[in-house]
């Protein structure tokens, strides 16, 4: 069983419009997930400095941050990064370029979690329906190009108002789209923007929205989570693999 989560942290700016990274770090600890996809981790302007320092993540939580940023002090690729528990092995990290009118991207990592290898994609899709569809297809096409198929979890802020259509149609063709529940706006959730999508062999045991009082003020999105069970064939083969460095 692996617990995953996705969280749009809005550059660590809370609903009181104060930037408080410690609030986000506390929510991450509350989630107690094994793997977390973060969106909007970096500041928007200037050097795009990460709103969460990798050192603070390592010191205050059970996670290590994978670095996808192209600038020295950025952590995310267009704001997307992935956190994993410190004991997990990272086998691959890749940036996915998404077609867009505005800068958009996705982050991909292959992770060994205990005896399971799993592929994780964190993404933040655009505000325009046409481009969200194109971005969904781009993510799926990139997955098909990879030489080794693995059980796959895609998650993030899809910005999709349609509960069944839109970009969800493309993901649902060969994957299971999980709707944990309304996660935006955190004060009064009414939209299910944040989704978790799994390849068919993964069984979703449970899923939901993290509704703590701290989460309601730490960002305008609430985190979503899912508990996943993997089939026997997903158990990693024995033998060493070269790990990718993480901060």
How would you characterize this protein structure?
The protein is of the alpha+beta class and 247 residues long. The chain has a single domain (2-233), classed as Endonuclease/exonuclease/phosphatase (Deoxyribonuclease I, Chain A, 4-Layer Sandwich). Helix content is 19%, strand content 30%. It has 5 helices and 12 strands. The strands form 2 sheets. Strands 3-4-2-1-12-11 form a 6-stranded mixed sheet. Strands 5-6-7-8-10-9 form a 6-stranded mixed sheet. β5 (89-97) and β6 (105-113) form a beta hairpin. The longest helix has 17 residues, at 129-145. Mean pLDDT is 92; it is low at 236-242. Residues 5-221 form the Endonuclease/exonuclease/phosphatase domain. It holds the Pfam family Exo_endo_phos. GO terms for molecular function: endonuclease activity; exonuclease activity. One of its GO terms (biological process) is GPI anchor biosynthetic process. It comes from Consotaella salsifontis.
SSE ordering: EHEHEEEEEHEHEEEHE
**DSSP E strands, number:** 12
Shape: globular
Q: Strands of the largest sheet, in order across it?
A: 3-4-2-1-12-11
Strand count, sense and barrel status of the largest sheet are: 6 strands, mixed
List the helices and strands and how they pair.
Elements: E1 2-8, H1 21-31, E2 35-39, H2 54-60, E3 63-65, E4 81-85, E5 89-97, E6 105-113, E7 116-124, H3 129-145, E8 152-157, H4 167-172, E9 176-178, E10 194-198, E11 203-209, H5 213-218, E12 224-229
Parallel strand pairs: 1-2, 7-8
Antiparallel strand pairs: 1-12, 2-4, 3-4, 5-6, 6-7, 8-10, 9-10, 11-12
